[in-house]
């Protein structure tokens, strides 16, 4: 998933962005690229490659189109009516309080799962150096450290955010340059089994359509965080530049993603890819580059940890906003005298992290695949609601209707593709259980509001 390191700014962005902003469109584009690249791409893409091979490049192209459609509608709603609640507010505006309530808790659940995915990814990457240490030990360590960072305060995120964005982007560029050097023979080594450029449809789609279908979710997951950029579009100097900023951002990301994935599957058999090692490390593992795995791993861990800590901060403040709106118990908006942090909200988020640690203890072999799949599906539910709410709120032309329907079809394809492969199907049922629980609670609350004549 993507990297949500920019979400720590959500509350301030939404409250300050109603006037004239300070960002130029190209600045928002660069910020978007830095905010989106994360462990979901560096590690999660390996799951998709394992499913479908070279056609993963096409998966990223399709996911870019679907992501742009979501950004397009969110940016339109945000610039027309900037609100702190972001797309949860728009869901309520479109369909009533039940939609805002359900959307908010679904988004909170998604964030918790994404943090669990990031936590597991960091643990897997750390085992590169310490293979005998149990996964849950690293997960517990990173969780405690992340909570400690949030307790200290998050002001430092603003200062180093651009540096971390450069680190993540530089890691991809470093791989592209090294891979190109290896292909041209400037770096010695390599495997004699290098697949090279596929020469037929069978080589592009080795698992045929079902495998390609199942890979779509992981391509979409790598673009996760676009909802944050849609929110930040209210800080543009010219709000009309939001679609252009989104196009440039997604074009830049797509080029980086597809080029690096294409080089990876060109250099090593896709069957050697797995969720336990970054596909880029696997691709260059047979070359005499002793420094690369360590530098690359370190860069991903640094960026991933900052993203997880920022996500934790964001999910804590999200619950505070929901509490102020009456969509969460009043307890969660209480700020205690420790740096004025909402400790009850932080405690609930910590419980979610603990659940990831326990799961890592019980299912060390498949946890990353399961959590990433479930988080990606919940993210698709959020994105679908953005499009549906936009249909209700905005005055849209036929072009937008066609665009929105196309986006919904692509998102549905990404979700349904997880049912094709048994090894990732568990993630679908995890997300389905969470949606049923949220739906049931929403129904109960709707009846309670009606009984007590609370405004809906």
TrEMBL record:
One Pfam family hit: AA_permease
GO biological process: one example: transmembrane transport
Segments traversing the membrane: 25-44, 56-75, 133-153, 165-187, 216-236, 248-271, 291-320, 341-364, 370-394, 401-420, 426-446
InterPro entries: AA-permease/SLC12A_dom (IPR004841)
Compartments, record wording: Membrane
UniProt GO cellular component terms: membrane
Domain Amino acid permease/ SLC12A intervals: 29-453
Main location per the UniProt record: membrane
Topology versus the membrane: Multi-pass membrane protein
Keyword line: Amino-acid transport, Membrane, Transmembrane, Transmembrane helix, Transport
Source superkingdom: Bacteria
Protein name (record): Amino acid permease
